[in-house]
Design brief:
The protein is α+β, with helices and mostly antiparallel strands and 481 residues long. The chain is 54% helix and 11% strand. The strands form 4 sheets. It has a 5-stranded mixed beta sheet with strand order 1-2-8-5-3. This is Cytochrome P450.
């Protein structure tokens, strides 16, 4: 009874707040579409479509009905949905400075932390992104290849060899999380790593949710897990800072073996470029979730693609066997070996085109924005969705066909801001090259050490909120001699 009363009072409060906000926009030429029930609007309908992996069809119906710009209510706020490469460029990824800001849905902001990169704009965004990009430059990644090679081999020996069947998705999550913890953050196996992974599993569940903080909601559970993860990471920063102080490192750049050490060093040495403790923690969480979730999904779906496309599988295998023949038995991969895996990366890109792990994202209008005949009012959310251009037949001919040659440099270039699995323009993912390296090294050892068949006949994809096979992709595996 008390819960019902709380919900009723909350609904009345939000209705009045919502109506006030709308009245200030009434005189503007708003895009077509219904806002629906205050605060909730189309949120539940969209989340339902995502769970059945029909969200792009759900949005396409809106495009067919209202055109490429329409209004709705998502996750508590009035929202304008935009569709098309031109809109992606003009509003989402390369908009005029001071026009749009990074601001995700309330649930994502509160779970990841208010100072994570997806929330920052202007000079703060440049400063934080610059620090991450500098550390993840090719010079750093070159030194990671050998250690990443060892992590992948250790994982396969522990979880794959000796088994006749495995479930791919949870194993890929384990692998990618171990890699990012070990290489980027210097968190080795132990209780800290186990505690963080448990927190992250709960955090991801509530990233896209209606932000009502009641005890029985996903949002509430995710907030608690986020608070626990942040406390663990803050203690980790203190421990690492103490070690750095005791060692009194002189050759600092050479001793920045992980991202946390690097960020702590610039915090102490370069006040203009320094990240606060809050920014370091929140962006560690962002990178961990991205590394744990998106790359693991890509690897899972690539194995699914290779199991169902014999021609593609044969071409990928040939590329990796040629690299293998140039190596001594047991010799680790090098940066030069990875640079030869061009066809494999085209397969990865085509997998991302058809099955983007992250469905879309949000911005916020900092002032009234004119988009064609319509006005996006100041303070409204702007929602974009990757599949809407990825599956546009005017951009990608026969869009449902799996065709890696679309990403061949000798083919007609893909129009800018059409393929946005990693974002675009100044907002392209700073971990892009790390994810690429991780994917290619993993596929090399999987395809040279195993063949596999899908075990599940009722295999379908669902988004909750990221994309995943419903059963986690169980496969039969057959080790090669």
């Amino acid at each position: 009874m008390i819960t019902v009363i709380i919900l009723l009072v909350l609904t009345i409060f939000l209705f009045h707040r919502f109506r006030t906000r709308l009245s200030s926009s009434a005189a503007k030429n708003l895009p077509p579409g219904a806002l629906g029930v205050p605060f909730i609007g189309q949120s539940l309908s969209l989340l339902g479509a995502m769970r059945t992996n029909t969200a792009e069809k759900w949005l396409q119906k809106r495009v067919d009905k209202y055109g490429p710009v329409s209004k709705m209510t998502l996750f508590g706020k009035p929202t304008v949905f935009i569709h098309g490469a031109a809109a992606n460029k003009a509003v989402v990824f390369s908009g005029e400075e001071g026009t749009v800001s990074n601001r995700q849905v309330e649930s994502l902001k509160m779970i990841l932390g208010k100072r994570n990169l997806t929330e920052l704009s202007g000079e703060d965004h440049k400063r934080v992104r610059g620090a991450l990009v500098w550390f993840l430059r090719p010079q750093t990644l070159r030194s990671y290849v050998g250690k990443m090679d060892g992590e992948v081999r250790r994982h396969l020996n522990m979880y794959w060899h000796g088994n006749n069947e495995v479930t791919v998705a949870p194993l890929m999550k384990t692998l990618t999380f171990d890699i990012i913890c070990s290489l980027l953050f210097g968190i080795e196996e132990g209780t800290t790593r186990k505690s963080i992974i448990e927190c992250f599993k709960t955090m991801v569940d509530g990233i896209w949710s209606i932000p009502i903080n009641l005890p029985f909601t996903r949002y509430n559970h995710s907030l608690k897990a986020s608070a626990k993860a942040q406390q663990i990471l803050k203690q980790l920063l203190k421990d690492k800072a103490k070690v750095m102080e005791e060692e009194k490192e002189s050759e600092v750049e050479e001793n920045d073996k992980d991202l946390i050490s690097y960020l702590l060093r610039i915090k102490n040495k370069d006040k203009e470029q320094a990240l606060s403790e809050e920014e370091i923690v929140h962006n560690i969480i962002l990178l961990m979730i991205a590394g744990h979730d998106t790359t693991s999904i890509l690897l899972t779906l690539m194995l699914r693609v290779l199991a169902t496309n014999p021609t593609v599988y044969a071409a990928v295998l040939q590329e990796h066997e040629e690299i293998g023949r140039s190596k001594e038995r047991g010799e680790a991969l090098t940066w030069e070996d990875v640079s030869k895996m061009k066809y494999t990366w085209r397969v990865a890109m085509e997998t991302l085109r058809l099955y983007p792990p992250v469905f879309g994202g949000f911005r916020v209008a900092l002032k009234d924005i004119q988009l064609g005949a319509y006005t996006i009012p100041k303070g409204w959310q702007i929602f974009w969705a990757a599949p809407m251009t990825h599956l546009d037949e005017t951009i990608f001919g026969d869009p449902q066909k799996f065709e890696p040659s679309r990403f061949d440099q000798n083919q007609t270039p893909i129009p800018p801001f059409s393929f946005i699995a990693f974002g675009g323009g100044p907002r392209i993912c700073p971990g892009y090259e790390f994810a690429k390296l991780e994917t290619l090294v993993t596929i090399h050892y999987l395809i040279t050490q195993f063949t596999w068949n899908l075990s599940c006949s009722q295999d379908f994809l669902t988004r909750d909120p990221t994309l995943m096979p419903n059963k986690g992709l169980p496969i039969q595996i057959f080790p090669k001699s």
